[in-house]
Amino acid sequence: MSKKRLKREHLKKRFLNKNRIVLFNEHTFEEIFSIKLNLINVIGAGLSLFLFLIISTVLLIVFTPLKELIPGYSSAELKRQAIELTLKTDSLEQLAINNEAYIESVKKVLKGEIELSKVNLDSVVKNEIPLLESKDLQVSESDKKLRELVLAEDKYNLFQEAKPKVSMVLFPPVKGTLVERYDPKQRHYSVVVAVPKNTPIKAIAAGIVVLAEWTPQSGYVLILRHAEGIISVYKRATSLTKAQGDQVKTGEALGLVGEGIDGSAPNYLQFELWKDSYPIDPTMFIDFD
User: Fold this and answer.
1) Regarding predicted confidence, which is higher, 153 or 166?
2) 20 to 30 A Cα–Cα from 268, which one of 4, 136, 172, 214?
3) What is the pLDDT of residues 53-107, one digit of tens each?
4) How many CB atoms lie within 10 A of CB 45?
């Protein structure tokens, strides 16, 4: 035979010759397990095990959440959640900006740091006109007579219904005697009303409580936000029945006016009215008598 043929026969015998693997008991030399294998069987079993491990790993990654641990992989669900979180973050950021601006406006109301450049004194609407002096708001005798004449004519007019010049009617917070009037020149933006002890304070219109707390200078202070940018401020109260965030109706009780904050009498309510961050004379819209 040639050398090549002998080499092939040798390799064939090496792959096809069977070998026995036997397990013996060390003490009794009793045969426990035996198996016949050749090199081809060992290579086939190894390849099968390798393919099984590869297929199992692929299936485990594809059909289980383990695929999310792979760097650079992002599922459609993760993308959707990321978009939702981004939108919520933008909304919360805008809401925080709006709340911060509103809180700054309330702080200016409480501290009196407001520029008296523009305010609407004719009606509680969004149009703004330059601030008028108190002397310019005095009603002359001729104007009074003209108004009485117009009211008398409209009273018996069956074809034309009189319409109010304002979009909402303000309820008086208390009934009493005005002891201090609105004076923007002295930076006194409130009116002070003397009332009997334990007089209830009532909401001038429906709204929401944005501040309700006690202060050393003004006793209990309550601020309401109403429609059309109107803010009402109630100071020198001795007790409150509402808390921040509560919604109130027109004429609903907010608290009581007792003795003065220093324990003296008479009993006062200090009331302020604001429109679009500008002070307004409350007596233009509310009758306290």
Assistant:
1) 153
2) 136
3) 999 888 887 787 776 667 666 666 777 788 888 888 888 888 888 888 888 878 7
4) 11
What is the three-state SS of 149-169? HHHHHHHCCCCCCCCCCCCCC
The tokens describing 240, both together, are: 């409150």
* Structure-block tokens of residue 41: 């069987």
Exposure of 131 by Cβ count < 10 A (0-12 exposed, 13-18 middle, 19+ buried)?
middle
SS3 193: strand
The vertex-262 CA angle with 260 and 267, nearest 5°, equals 10
Give the tens place of pLDDT for each residue, 184-232: 888 899 999 999 888 999 999 999 999 999 988 888 999 999 988 899 9
- 223: helix, strand or coil: strand
The two tokens of residue 62 are: 């594809």
DSSP string spanning 36-69? Answer: EE-HHHHHHHHHHHHHHHHHHHHHHHHSSGGGGG
So what's the pLDDT on residue 1? 53
Alpha-carbon distance 51 to 39, whole Å?
18
